[in-house]
Amino acid sequence: MMSAQLQQQQSAADGAAPPALGNQSLGSDELPPVRNRASESKSPYVSLHADTPVAWQPMSEETLARAKAENKPIYMHIGFLADHLCHITTRDTFHNPTVAAFLNEHFVPIIVDREERPDLDAIYQNYSVAVNSISGWPLHLFFTPDLEPFFANAYLPAPGTVGEDGEACDLLTILQSNHRLWVEKEQKCREEAAKELEGLEKFVQEGALPLARAPNATATSDSDIEVDLDHVELAVSRIAKLFDPVHGGFGQPGEPKFPNPARLSFLLRLRECPDTVRDVIGGDEDVERATKMALQTLSKMKNSGLRDHIGEGFMRMSSTSDWNMPHFEKMVGDNALLLGVYLDAWLGNRKGTQLTNQDEFADVVLGLADYLISPAIQQENGGFISSEAAYSYYRKGEQHMTNGTFYLWTHREFDEVLGPEASNIAAAYWNVQEDGNVPQERDPSDEFLNQNILSAGNGVHELSTQHGLPVEEIHRIIASSKKKLLAHRDKERVRPPRDTKIIAGVNGMVISALSRSQAAAEAVGHSKSAEYIKRAEKAAQFIFDSLWLNDINTEGPNGGQHKVLHRYWNNGPSETLAFADDYAFLIEGLLDLYEATLSKRWLNWAQDLQEAQNRLFYDSPSAANGTPSRRAAGSGGFYSTELQTISSNIPRLKSAMDILIPSVNAVSASNLYRLGSIFAEQRYKQIALETIKAFDPELMEHHWIHQSLLANVITAKLGVEEVRIENQDLAQSQLAELRLRARGRARVLVGAK
Predict the structure, then answer these.
(1) Contact by Cβ (8 Å): 355, 523
(2) Tens of pLDDT, residues 256-287
(3) What is the dihedral angle through the alpha carbons of 249, 454, 506, 617, rounded to the nearest 10 degrees?
(4) Which of 9, 433, 438, 522 has the fewest CB atoms within 10 Å of its CB?
(5) Residue 550: CB partners within 8 Å, gap ≥ 6?
(6) Coil, strand, or helix at residue 60?
(7) Are 735 and 592 in contact (CB under 8 A)?
(8) Which residue windows does the record flag with biased composition (Low complexity) (predicted)?
(9) 550, 577 contact by CB (below 8 A)
(10) 642: Cβ–Cβ under 8 A, 6 or more apart, which residues?
(11) Helix axes 171-203, 4-12, angle to 10 degrees
């Protein structure tokens, strides 16, 4: 299926002669022979393609120079290891010799791991939505040799696949069409691509455009920002219109559903705000409405097929509104953020003053935290991996990996592992059917025939009545069954492939979640509670030692070298440097780790990281000097990438929109407010305020998708909540009280020595 954009280009093209090549450092006859360079990458996903016949190239100046010298369009593939459709594409398409030969002859093929280059993924997903109303992975992109986009599409089936209209709809067909377009109508293609790039640059740089904002971007007090607390109420009202009252979650009927930690956190934080905020946003009734939406969603998710009920952790998304048809990949960062949200739900929803193991969300919090410190997720060096794949071998020695097989069960397996009596109760509890529980309409190709996706279909009280057993006995049987099923799964099945990249930002998310969870786990006597802080500190130390390195290209203060953060570790630090989100989430994790340990080393490192983030990514109004540009607007806020780039045609992303997780600008503003209070540094607070001001128009017009930054408006208006320790002997008791409170507006612990 061709995009509307490509069809327009083909019908409007006038067949003009190709333009002359620009200045080239190499002629096409001087270039070295092309070869597959995927094995050179530290990315596990990219290196998986080393045995394909495609001559994969890295995203580099050398590759772009080759495209210009050969005047070949660029084909770019963006994917990630955990995704099942990416796995299928590699297996069925990139191993196909006909596809590979055509790609190698007529295009310059570039492969990108979305987790290594999240900037490229975000930019070109936006482009794909704009021209095709399609996003997702794998993402197929076509560019002129100057890196101007002219076509995009998401998953394309195996070569030879025919669509409902009777026409071929595979990648080879798209390659052939785009090759004809380039050969026959190159000039028109270039002109259209240049226009697409211009529109894309505007689309991905909210908070930077129009540039006329720049001269007025400096903010010194909350009165300098136009957005107000009233917009919090408007956001809640708009979110309520997207809420699914039956299954929880947000979106339009029939659309896939994603856990949305950013939105859920925003809704839960409102009940922790003081009365001055509650009154403005509609009083207790509106706050209760926001809280109910979050709690219902979290409750539905924890009982659904989205959750791994045996080994814990949540899958990335569900293709159905009831959460019971998951895409089986587990993203570690998503699970860390969900841990923080479930912790807030537990802390804020407890009955009475004491936490108990029987509280509604206690099992999810403890299970998620234990999952994150398990050997599958935390490596021996202390770093946390990025994901577990959706696909795996069912048993050792099998030749083909299949989707979700690690998490599926038959009723017969339940009988064999648990015995008939326990099996009947466990099968009823997890909705396990003799002929499987996946409806035919959700499984047209019989991929899950006779298989069951576990979900908590029946409650323990209902089972107690049905089987005439005490509730306590039902609990015991379910707990025992879970242990037996986990042991069987670990012994008999092959765990899904893991993406072993230790990403700085993802580790910051896990460090934060574990640091915040420790006090609650300890309060209910959980056996692993002490491990949470130890594991968080071990990860922080590894990132400090392995990814916080000297920058040989810059000179720091006193003639020394600046330190910079690298994006990830995988048998060594990546050449790719960290993005602003890596800094922001790592700083947040270190601040939470400091509050859990009172160790100043983490606080001081957080400040060093913040200084580096400000230097590399902050769009300072004072630095623009009246001459804003499209890569340095001087309007406040943080870009996601550094100023320097291998191509000026890669837009510099600047956004405060929450794409399921909190935006980099939201997290950065919160960090700056916290650091500003701890160190009594007004400069940090001013940068936070300028960051909010940079997105004033977006916050007022599209408040419901900028909710994390909107939460910082509350801090801007009311200030940071400071918990002061005047007496060191009281530090631990004050800390324990602080750690057993759900998050509201920005809050810090000050005065600790």
Answers:
(1) yes
(2) 999 999 999 999 999 999 888 888 888 888 89
(3) -30
(4) 433
(5) 561, 562, 563, 564
(6) coil
(7) no
(8) 1-22
(9) no
(10) 577, 616, 617
(11) 100
